Protein: Integron integrase
Amino acid sequence: MRKPTSPFLAAIYEQMLTSRYAMSTIEAYLYWIRFYIRFHHLVHPATLGEAEVSAFLTFLAEQRQVAVKTQAQALNALVFLYKQVLNRPFTLQLAFRHSQKAAKLPTVLTPAEVQALLSHLPVHLLLPAQLMYGSGLRVMEAMRLRVQDIDRHYLSLMIWNGKGGKHRRVTLASELLPALQQQIAQVRYYYQADLQRSDYAGVWLPDALARKYPAAPQELGWHYLFPARQLSRDPANGVLRRHHLDASVVQKAIRQAARQLQLGKPVSCHTLRHSFATHLLARGADIRTVQEQLGHSDVRTTQIYTHVLQQGANGVRSPLSDLWRAVQPDDQT
Structure:
């Protein structure tokens, strides 16, 4: 995304960029902050308080009828604005009308549809998609994988600082080991070439890790599993690094493959994660196990996938099915 032209929003953009927020989060937060300012007729947020925040969130629920997660995202953006930017964190007095709009059931592909989708992806983007489906990863979790996050002996991946800052270990399909070996070889090729440059600052690490392990940015294991093809300047300090592959590249490829297949349902990177969870449950996996694999804090979030598996509404068999079977002509005639 482009840097906002508004000095106030541009400062927020720079602050979030320096704090290493994902670009998708920066874009979403700036959208809601901009919406909030316009809702209050361009009055500066510093002169507004919790009453105005509550009025905006209530407007989203009552007038816009946004989903629960959408309202929660707007709230998170304003919490960031007042706590991190304006240094005026909210108190417990914040009161607003909560959205009641039910969440949609997730879109899930059949195993055959997953196989067809994967077969239509470009070769260089196949492995990230296979990991999203095979290990239940979010697209940014796949993009942020580092070489040392792969545990070939225990067939698992380490996911660090996932959604909510949580860490987890997830399953890894043994069939992907040869492809992973080839991918690491590609990373090593870039790595050895980059080290020849005197201005190469190594891969980015969170500030605490960079201080604890000052040599780590120059080590292969810390480098991204899916590196960008070009070196780029770190927006925080201008040093030369090799970032990970942009998630939008994978997202566009998956959408394009879905359109070519004419699946008749909306498909995104997250659809592969939904399919992973649903197919695990269909194979008899315990819901707590699936919860751990997905990194959900609340099992109720995971339970939505059980609704996808149910036959009919709440598993009820329609009486028309018995009637239909009774009136069908004999197969032998």
Notes: The first helix runs from residue 7 to 18. Residues 7-85 form a domain with the DNA polymerase; domain 1 fold (CATH 1.10.150.130). The mean pLDDT is 90. The chain has 15 helices and five strands.
